[in-house]
Structure formats: structure tokens, C-alpha cells
């Protein structure tokens, strides 16, 4: 049997050494009537060769974004990933290690996490980052719970313009905890600062704003800072890490907790998982943070070393009083992000942000000139924007699919049947963008 | 001294280029002044070779499965098949966007559908969600399902989850996150559930009982039938923490011994790699009456078409992940189940039990095993007690012989092994939990046993060697106190 080492003969020898004549004697604690007499009803075992043929056949039924001209985003982005990233994360030294509990034989993982934390602090302008969360949605939910713990208040005010997937996960995470959630609706694709001011009350623990928001529009984070920090509420910013190469560092608008989806940093879309969330904050809130944190220290010889730290917050020590239940996170995805950011360097990430933004602008300008199409909003955007479509976006998408184009995300789920959310990354060439513009023209003339 | 990547940065050095931007637009026309970043980002500047050397150097400081034995109890450190790594690197899995139309992801959905069903079959339950991305995430999901079941019946008062003191720390933490109350009961002298304490803890507010089975001592709970009857007697639900599912694959179905809901750790039981702490997968299986509460969407098959099914959205606990969980991890788990089939999974379970019992038998006169019920399942818990005692008998010096489990663990690192799980479960003083898994051979186990005997001899005769360990690892013992007191969590450059 593959992956099971001992032969029948060795098994017999070992059973004999243990002092039993057959396996069943080892499991006498399991009541006899519960023990299965038959093999489970699963497919017959397959060899690597057979299974690789099956995988080939199954993947052949998918159509993937590297063949289609794809403009899908909505939180998951197709940025270019240098091959060296996969080379590192495929190394068994990183791939098959467990959580770094034994620091002496885990310095590789620990130092890489420390470097990751430093890079996230650099991008966000925060003072402390954890080692990663499950995804941007759960990171946002945990940030809200963190603010409740810090302020001892019970209500979160959230921009209606955050990612709808985040709204769903926030609901699951907070509803059992008696946390009240109020969404402030968008006006013309953004949140008006005065609406946030009106919503804030005695009970408000935090205000959550996403920029660029789900439509791609920039929110006025500076105005929010002024309003929120007149009170004791914490300002939680949800951001796209790639955008931070060119857009305001969240420290500029005085965010207290910064979270977001990290997938865009060196991780493939993988049908939505694995992703990873990042969470960074000010030093004063460090004991309220969820998740693992790595710190620099020394070993017994005074040599530089890295270790898990501030563990008194965590579940294995605090149990039901822990700041979170999180244990395993998405460490390998965080490593991919660290290697990716190291390879790109500051010039590389800046170039990716520049190309994504300028190409998005080129496409938006082009689309707005086609008859029947227009930009849905008149706000600045980064790499994603919303258009108004001459027919239902779902119909438009189907027509473009036949032309091998994934046109974007149809906003019907948030009540806008004639809106399409379009994302552009540096991977698109001018030709790809022109082909999309031409296709949009054609389907409207059909 | 080990340098961080930032200390290796050389201004102007480049490790990456893009094609020339063929769009003639200035970034300042995209981002108005107000929204522009004031201080430049400072990511390190290196060549690709610099970056490769740096991370390869870091990698050399890790212990990992292919390097050596990893008897980390409760973590099921099996070998992870390389073919599964190749499978998930198929472009038509990596480059799938979660918002793609269903007709363009039929192959992906077929894999998920089969995995949902296979895991339900293995659990002996009705259906499975693949959305939770880690064990603790699965616990949270399962507990929310329990809460939803009681709320749907109008029993909002049922909000207490009973669990034994031997439980993983994530269990009580997940109960708290799910908005319920933890009622912890003491284990009996054998380390098993104390039925009297359990019955005393049960009342009309009992929402359920959460049990790791086999438990954290590596023992199967023999009174499972009575426990389930007592919990079901007040309409409570039975939750199984599947961290230790490996030794019962194909031997018992959790769903047929009284459990209503369970989570898997596919990164343990189904051999997906741990990645230095994730991504994992915490799939949750449930019995029929709980199916409608599973997170949406489920993958369904209608005629010959696979679909993302949101039809139970009204009764569902909602979403606990942005999309469909850790897809790439789930594909590896699927491949593992397909490779082993029913026969192989049962064989894996049996051999994991045989391997653990073999080590325990060979070490039972060398190390104190407090809850020795003759046989264990996939793991067992030993302590340092005899080493301390024997050293004192030999050398007569209490201070010199103050050997802790931590010291024995660190000495194992010197000898090329990863340490067992230590100081857990909390109910055993100075615990060390040893789990070999079925992928290890008799030869590996024999070498490990010989090493453990050697360490015992060192404890008795030259304890300073053990107390000073490790000395051959990339670094020696770390100063954890300094790590907290002089908190340095980011490099400033």
C-alpha cells in the first residue's frame, strides 16, 4: 500500500513484540458492536498513474483565467507571480514542517514570519502585525471582535461599501457574541462622512471602512479619521495591499487596525482558497490581537533568534478567555507573500501598482466611450471600477463568455442588475484591453 | 549573525521586471494627490539569486518530515505524497477564479463533490462542508451548527457546551467564539470521561458535549454509548473533535457511535502538508438532522451537472470563509482518499495504532506512562518522572537531576528528531505525547526507541548533557522572556 511503510511480515513481528496475536486485540476499548466488519464504500484505490490521468481529465473540464481574457476581481486578483515564489514554498523544509513550536529547529519559518510582519508594517505604517489569518473576511471579523474587547462597547458601524463576502463572514463571527452591526448605506458609490457621524453613538466600538471599496471607489478616509477619533471608537481600515505602494498608508489617516486580503501578494486564485488575511495595529493594542506573533530574541549563547511571543493571548494558554480560537492559519501563503515582496522589492511593487492602475484607467476611459456603456461612478479608483451596462450584466457576461472573456462580476446580488465590476492587473497588455473594448461593442450591437 | 532580508538590501538592486507599460497614462492622473502615499514603501532591494539564497538558508534551519521523524503527538505528521503537490499545480486548478461561471469549473466542483461525499461516508454521517480552513475553524463551524439546531427548535437557553479538561485549548476558545458557555469536567483517574461528573454537569441548558476521540491520551473512550445516551437524553448534541481521527479510519464511523457532528483535520488525517502552520482544512460532517444548517454553498449534482447550491441559505449558519474553503488543500485530501481507498485507509489506521503500541511497549519500562491501559490507539503520553528519579538515585544531587520533559524534548532535537508534543494534555504533569503515524517504518521506530533509551541513560549518568541540550541545532534554547519583555516584532530600517 503506498505511503504505509511496514510490510505484512513486519506487522506480524511488531504485533508479536507488543504481545498480541492480531490487530483487533489492540482496540478492545472500542465496543465490538461498533467495529466495522466491512470496508468502507469508497472508490477502489488508484495508482499515481491512474490518478494523474483522472486529474488531467477533470482539470480539462475547467476553463481557466490564464487562457481566457479575465477581468474578475472582487477581492481575488490575478497578479503575476515570479516562478521563484513557488520554488521556495514547494521546498519540503517549509512545506512539511509543523507550526514552529520548537524554535531551535524552526528558525526558518520563524524568521520568515518576522520578515513578513515587518513588510506588512512597512506597507500599512502600523507598528505590529500578526502572522496571518484565514482570509480578509475573517481578519475583518476578528478586528471587530478585537475592538469590542478593547473598548468594552457592543456595536460596530460598517460601511455598506465593503465586500459582500466580508459582510457574510462578519455576520457568522459576530452574531453569537451579542455584537450589534449597523451598515451605513452608500450614496453614489461611497460613504458620506456625515452619515458615519450620524450613525456613531455611545455604544460604538469601531467603524469599518474599505478603500478602495467594493465598487473600486476611494473612500474619504481622512474625513472618517476626524469623525471617528472624536469618540473612543477604533477606526478599522480594510485595504488592498497592492494599492498601498501608491495609495495612502493607513497610518496617514490614523487607522487603529488595518486588515485585508493578502492573496494578491504572490498567491494564485485557486478557486478562492487558500487565501490569507493580514491584521496589523498600533503597539498599544498588542495584547488584544488574535493569532500568532513572532518576536526577535536571543538564544542561550546570545545569538539572534526568533520565537513565538505574546502567547498569553492564545487559546492553548487562555482557553475560553483567549483573544481568538485561531491556531493553524495560512502560514505557507504568508511565506509566498514574503518571498513575493522580497523579489519585487519597492520598485517592483510600485511598478505593479502603477501598471494595474494605469491600465485600469485606460480600460475605463475606453469603455466609457462606447455607446450604451458608462462608468457607474465619478470617483477615483485603483485597479477596479464599476460600469453601467446596456443590458443585464448577467446577459452581457454570458455573451462575452462565448468570446473567451470573463467580463467581471455582476452586481445583481447587491441589487444592481446593470452594473459590472471590472478588475485589471499588470498582466493585461494593451491588446487584451482593446480586445475587451471591441467585444463589449460587438455584443451591444448583436 | 543571521541577517534579515532587510539587512541584505542594496539600493537600486532589482530581482524582478515587468514588460514595458504599453499604456500611456500617468499614475498621477489615476490617483489624485490627496490619496497618494506620502512616504515611499521600503521593501528590500535584492536580486533573484539574493532572495533564493536567503530563503534557502532559512529553509536549512527547519526540521521537516522528509528530513527526519516527527513524532509530534496529536499532529499526525504523516509523509505528504509528492504526486498531490504536482496535481494541485495544474494550471486549471491554480488559475480558477472563485466567481467563474459554474459551467467553467465543472472539474473543480466534481472533485469537491466527491470529497464531500467521501468524508461523509468515512464519518458515517449525511453530508460535509469543506469551507472551514483549519481545525479550530471547523470547531467554530460545528458549534455554530449546534447553536443553530437549538435556536431553530426555540431552545435559546441551550447554550452550554460540556468538555473534558483534557481537551485542546481550541475547544473552549471555539465555544466562546460561537457565543456559548464552557462547562469543563474533570477526567477520571484513568484519563477518561468521568460519567458521574458528566451527569452532574448535564442540565436543561446543555447544548452539547465536545470530545476528542480517541482522546488526547491516545485512548478510545469506552463509555461512548453511555455518554451519548446521557447527552441525547436532554436533546444535546455530540461533537467529535477529529484531531485524532487517523486511528479509527474504517474501524468505526463516528456517526454510528453517537456523534452528530465532527470536524476533520485534513492536514493531519488526509495527509495534506502543514506548511509551517497552514493552510489546513477543517471539513465538518453532520448527521441528517443538521444538514440544513451547514454553511452555504454546498456542492451538489443535478443530473450530470455540478452546482454551487445555495438552496438552504435560510436555515444555514451562513458563510465562515469568503469562498469555498482551502480548495487546494481539499484537492490534496481528495487525492489521498482516492489513492488509498477503503482498504488503504483502514490499513493506515491499523498501522498507526500498531506503530504507537510498538514504541509504547518498548519504552514502557524506560519512561513513566501514567495512563497505561495496556494498549493505546495512535499515540501515548509519557513523562519525565523516572528520569528525574533515577538520576537522583544515581547521583544524589537534586539540582543536577532537575530534568524536565522540556529537557528531554530538546535532547531529541540534538539527535535529529523533532520533539513530541510537550506539556499537553494539561491533565498529565510534564506530559510528552508521542505519535508515530503509519508512514514510518519499523526501522525508524527502532532507531527512535534506541535514542529514547540513550537519552534515559544520559539523564541517569550525565544529566548536564540533557539539561544543556540542544547544542547541535542552528540555535540553542531561546530566551522566551526577553521575546515578551523587549518586544521586537518588526525590523525597522
Structure summarized in a few sentences:
The complex is a heterodimer of chains A (446) and B (493). In chain A, α3 (83-89) runs antiparallel to α11 and α11 (331-368) crosses α13 (430-445). Chain A has 13 helices and 15 strands.
Describe the structure.
The complex is a heterodimer of chains A (446) and B (493). With 446 residues, chain A is an alpha/beta fold. Chain A has three domains: 8-59, no CATH class; 69-80 and 345-445, Aspartate Aminotransferase, domain 1; 83-339, Type I PLP-dependent aspartate aminotransferase-like (Major domain) (Aspartate Aminotransferase, domain 2). Helices cover 36% and strands 14% of the residues of chain A. In chain A, a hairpin with an 8-residue loop joins strand 14 (409-410) and strand 15. In chain A, helix 6 (136-151) crosses helix 7. The model of chain A has no long low-confidence stretch (mean pLDDT 97). In chain B, the strands form three sheets. Chain B has a seven-stranded mixed β-sheet, with helices on both faces. Chain B has a three-stranded antiparallel β-sheet with strand order 10-12-11, with helices on one face. Chain B is globular. The longest helix of chain B is centred in the last third of the chain and has 37 residues, at 327-363. In chain B, helix 8 links the parallel strand 4 and strand 5 (237-242). Chain B has helices at 48-59, 82-88, 91-94, 106-123, 135-152, 170-177, 195-201, 224-232, 266-269, 327-363, 385-395, 405-414, 442-461, 463-467, 480-485, and strands spanning 127-129, 160-164, 181-185, 206-212, 237-242, 261-264, 284-286, 298-302, 305-309, 380-382, 421-422, 432-434. Chain B has three domains: 5-52, no CATH class; 83-340, 3-Layer(aba) Sandwich (Aspartate Aminotransferase, domain 2); 346-480, Aspartate Aminotransferase, domain 1 (Alpha-Beta Complex), CATH 3.90.1150. Chain B is of the alpha/beta class. In chain B, helix 4 packs parallel to helix 10 (327-363) and helix 5 (135-152) packs across helix 6. Classes of the chains: A alpha/beta (446), B alpha/beta (493). At the A-B interface, helix 1, helix 2, helix 3, helix 4 and helix 5 of A face helix 1, helix 2, helix 3, helix 4 and helix 5 of B.
Amino acid at each position: 500500500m503506498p505511503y504505509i511503510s511496514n510490510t505484512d511480515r513486519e506487522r506480524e513481528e511488531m504485533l508479536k513484540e507488543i504481545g498480541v496475536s492480531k490487530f483487533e486485540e489492540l482496540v478492545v476499548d472500542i465496543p465490538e458492536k461498533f467495529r466495522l466488519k466491512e470496508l468502507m464504500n469508497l472508490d477502489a484505490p488508484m495508482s499515481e498513474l491512474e490518478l494523474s490521468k483522472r486529474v488531467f481529465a477533470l482539470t480539462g473540464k475547467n476553463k481557466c483565467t490564464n487562457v481566457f481574457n479575465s477581468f474578475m476581481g472582487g477581492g481575488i486578483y490575478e497578479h503575476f507571480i515570479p516562478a521563484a515564489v513557488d520554488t521556495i514554498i514547494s521546498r519540503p523544509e517549509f512545506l512539511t514542517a509543523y507550526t514552529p513550536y520548537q524554535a531551535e529547529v524552526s528558525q526558518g519559518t520563524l524568521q520568515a514570519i518576522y520578515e513578513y510582519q515587518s513588510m506588512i508594517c512597512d506597507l500599512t505604517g502600523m507598528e505590529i502585525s500578526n502572522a496571518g489569518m484565514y482570509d480578509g473576511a475573517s481578519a475583518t471579523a476578528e478586528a471587530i471582535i478585537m475592538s469590542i474587547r478593547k473598548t468594552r462597547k457592543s456595536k460596530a458601524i460598517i460601511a455598506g461599501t465593503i465586500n459582500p463576502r466580508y459582510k457574510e463572514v462578519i455576520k457568522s463571527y459576530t452574531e453569537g457574541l451579542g455584537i450589534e452591526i449597523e451598515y451605513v448605506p452608500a450614496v453614489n458609490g461611497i460613504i458620506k462622512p456625515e452619515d458615519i457621524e450620524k450613525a456613531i453613538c455611545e455604544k460604538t466600538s469601531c467603524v469599518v471602512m474599505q478603500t478602495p471599496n467594493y465598487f473600486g471607489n476611494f473612500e474619504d478616509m481622512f474625513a472618517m479619521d476626524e469623525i471617528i477619533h472624536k469618540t473612543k471608537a477604533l477606526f478599522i481600515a480594510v485595504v488592498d495591499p497592492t494599492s498601498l505602494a501608491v495609495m495612502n498608508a493607513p497610518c496617514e489617516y490614523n487607522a487603529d487596525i488595518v486588515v485585508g486580503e493578502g492573496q494578491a501578494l504572490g498567491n494564485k486564485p485557486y478557486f478562492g482558497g487558500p487565501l490569507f488575511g493580514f491584521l496589523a495595529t498600533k503597539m498599544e493594542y498588542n495584547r488584544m490581537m488574535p493569532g500568532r506573533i513572532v518576536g526577535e530574541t536571543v538564544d542561550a549563547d546570545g545569538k539572534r533568534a526568533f520565537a513565538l511571543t505574546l502567547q498569553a493571548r492564545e487559546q492553548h494558554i487562555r482557553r475560553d478567555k483567549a483573544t481568538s480560537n485561531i491556531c493553524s492559519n495560512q502560514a505557507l501563503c504568508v511565506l509566498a507573500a514574503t518571498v513575493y515582496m522580497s523579489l519585487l522589492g519597492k520598485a517592483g511593487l510600485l511598478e505593479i501598482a502603477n501598471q494595474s492602475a494605469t491600465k485600469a484607467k485606460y480600460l475605463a476611459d475606453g469603455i466609457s466611450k462606447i455607446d450604451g456603456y458608462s462608468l457607474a461612478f465619478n470617483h477615483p479608483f485603483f485597479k477596479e471600477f464599476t460600469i453601467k451596462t446596456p443590458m443585464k450584466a448577467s446577459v452581457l457576461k454570458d455573451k462575452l463568455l462565448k468570446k473567451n472573456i470573463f467580463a467581471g462580476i455582476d452586481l445583481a446580488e447587491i441589487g444592481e442588475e446593470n452594473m459590472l465590476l471590472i478588475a485589471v492587473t499588470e498582466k493585461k497588455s494593451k491588446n487584451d484591453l482593446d480586445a475587451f473594448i471591441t467585444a463589449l461593442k460587438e455584443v451591444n450591437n448583436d | 549573525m543571521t541577517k534579515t532580508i532587510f539587512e541584505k538590501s542594496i539600493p537600486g538592486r532589482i530581482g524582478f521586471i515587468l514588460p514595458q507599460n504599453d499604456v500611456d497614462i500617468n499614475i498621477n492622473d489615476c490617483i489624485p494627490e490627496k490619496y497618494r502615499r506620502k512616504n515611499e514603501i521600503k521593501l528590500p532591494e535584492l536580486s533573484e539569486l539574493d532572495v533564493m539564497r536567503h530563503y534557502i538558508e532559512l529553509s536549512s534551519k527547519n526540521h521537516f518530515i522528509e528530513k527526519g521523524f516527527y513524532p509530534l503527538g496529536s499532529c499526525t505528521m504523516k509523509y505528504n505524497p509528492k504526486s498531490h503537490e504536482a496535481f494541485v499545480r495544474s494550471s486549471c486548478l491554480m488559475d480558477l477564479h472563485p466567481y467563474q461561471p459554474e459551467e467553467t469549473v465543472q472539474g473543480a466542483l466534481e472533485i469537491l463533490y466527491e470529497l464531500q461525499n467521501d468524508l461523509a461516508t468515512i464519518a458515517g454521517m449525511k453530508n460535509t462542508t469543506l469551507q472551514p480552513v483549519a481545525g479550530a475553524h471547523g470547531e467554530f463551524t460545528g458549534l455554530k451548527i449546534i447553536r443553530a439546531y437549538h435556536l431553530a427548535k426555540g431552545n435559546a437557553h441551550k447554550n452550554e457546551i460540556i468538555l473534558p479538561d483534557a481537551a485542546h485549548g481550541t475547544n473552549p476558545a471555539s465555544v466562546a467564539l460561537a457565543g456559548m458557555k464552557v462547562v469543563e469536567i474533570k477526567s477520571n483517574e484513568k484519563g477518561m470521561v468521568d460519567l458521574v461528573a458528566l451527569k452532574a454537569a448535564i442540565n436543561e441548558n446543555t447544548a452539547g458535549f465536545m470530545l476528542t476521540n480517541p482522546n488526547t491520551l491516545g485512548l478510545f473512550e469506552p463509555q461512548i454509548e453511555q455518554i451519548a445516551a446521557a447527552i441525547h437524553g436532554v436533546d444535546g448534541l455530540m461533537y467529535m473533535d477529529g484531531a485524532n481521527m487517523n486511528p479509527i479510519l474504517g474501524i468505526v464511523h463516528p456517526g454510528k457511535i453517537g456523534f452528530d457532528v465532527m470536524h476533520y483535520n485534513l492536514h493531519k488525517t488526509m495527509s495534506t502538508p502543514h506548511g509551517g502552520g497552514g493552510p489546513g482544512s477543517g471539513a465538518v460532517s453532520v448527521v441528517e438532522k443538521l444538514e440544513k444548517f451547514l454553511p452555504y454553498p454546498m456542492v451538489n449534482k443535478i443530473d450530470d451537472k455540478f452546482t454551487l447550491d445555495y438552496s438552504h441559505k435560510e436555515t444555514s449558519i451562513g458563510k465562515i470563509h469568503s469562498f469555498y474553503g482551502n480548495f487546494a488543500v481539499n484537492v490534496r485530501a481528495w487525492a489521498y482518499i482516492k489513492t488509498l481507498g477503503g482498504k488503504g485507509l483502514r490499513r493506515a489506521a491499523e498501522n498507526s495504532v500498531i506503530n504507537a503500541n510498538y514504541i509504547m511497549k518498548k519504552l514502557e519500562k524506560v519512561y513513566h506512562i501514567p495512563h497505561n491501559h495496556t494498549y493505546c490507539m495512535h499515540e501515548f503520553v509519557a513523562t519525565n518522572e523516572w528520569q528525574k528519579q533515577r538520576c537522583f538515585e544515581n547521583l544524589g544531587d537534586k539540582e543536577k537531576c532537575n530534568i524536565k520533559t522540556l529537557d528531554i524534548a530538546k535532547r531529541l532535537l540534538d539527535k535529529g528528531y523533532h520533539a513530541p508534543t510537550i506539556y499537553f494534555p494539561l491533565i498529565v504533569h510534564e506530559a510528552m505525547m508521542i505519535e508515530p503515524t503509519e508512514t514510518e517504518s519499523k526501522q525508524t521506530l527502532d532507531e527512535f526507541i534506541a535514542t529514547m533509551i540513550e537519552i534515559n541513560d544520559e539523564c541517569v549518568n550525565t544529566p548536564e548533557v540533557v539539561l544543556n541540550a540542544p547544542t547541535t541545532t542552528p540555535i540553542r534554547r531561546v530566551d522566551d522572556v526577553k521575546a515578551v519583555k523587549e518586544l521586537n516584532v518588526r525590523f525597522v530600517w
